[in-house]
Amino acid sequence: MSAPNHYEVSSLGRVRRISSGRILKPRTDRYGYYHYSLSVEGRVTFHTGHSLVSLAFFGPRPKGTEICHGDGNPQNNSIANLRYDTHSANMLDSIKHGTHHAIRRKSIEYDSE
């Protein structure tokens, strides 16, 4: 994170402003991922919860990798649920969890028959 002396990230995925001790409330995007607005000296930056946790506990994301949610839940940003892996591994996970966009589409088609 660009502001290591202003915010803390817990191993469970909570983000806290150090100066006030306040835990930030995330916004949720249409895919279910948590997003945070971080402000340092009047400059606001936007970050996903999983990217903040991964950076804080695993270090910078290696080139050619993505952040994967082991259980397929985009709101579970605990370190036990996150890992860096390839895009292919991330897609295989989404198929396994039933969260892949093509699988969701087919299940909707089948449900309507």
CATH topology: Homing Intron 3 (I-Ppo) Encoded Endonuclease, Chain A
Q: What would CATH call the class?
A: Alpha Beta
Kindly provide the radius of gyration, computed on alpha-carbon positions and rounded to a whole number of angstroms: 16 Å
Kindly report the oligomeric state of this protein.
single chain
Mean pLDDT: 88
Work out the number of β strands. 7
Read across the widest sheet, the strand sequence of neighbours is 3-4-5
Number of domains: 1
**Percent helix range:** 25-40%
Structural class: alpha+beta
Q: Give the overall shape.
A: elongated
CATH architecture: Alpha-Beta Complex
Discrete helix count: 3
Q: Could you tell me the strand content as a percent range?
A: 25-35%
Low-confidence stretches: none
Task: Give the biggest sheet.
Answer: 3 strands, antiparallel
Distance between the termini: 48 Å
- Helix and strand run: EEEEEHEEHH
Quick structural summary:
The chain is α+β, with helices and mostly antiparallel strands. It has helices at 49-58, 87-97, 101-111; strands spanning 7-9, 15-17, 27-28, 34-40, 43-48, 66-69, 82-85. The longest helix has 11 residues, at 87-97.
Main features:
two-stranded antiparallel ribbon; Homing Intron 3 (I-Ppo) Encoded Endonuclease, Chain A; about 110 residues; alpha+beta; three-stranded antiparallel beta sheet; 7 strands; about 30% helix
Structural commentary:
The model has no long low-confidence stretch (mean pLDDT 88). The chain contains three helices and seven strands. 14% of the residues are buried. The chain is an alpha+beta fold and 113 residues long. The chain has one domain (7-111): Homing Intron 3 (I-Ppo) Encoded Endonuclease, Chain A (Alpha-Beta Complex), CATH 3.90.75.20. The strands form three sheets. It has a three-stranded antiparallel beta sheet with strand order 3-4-5. It is elongated and about 45 Å long.
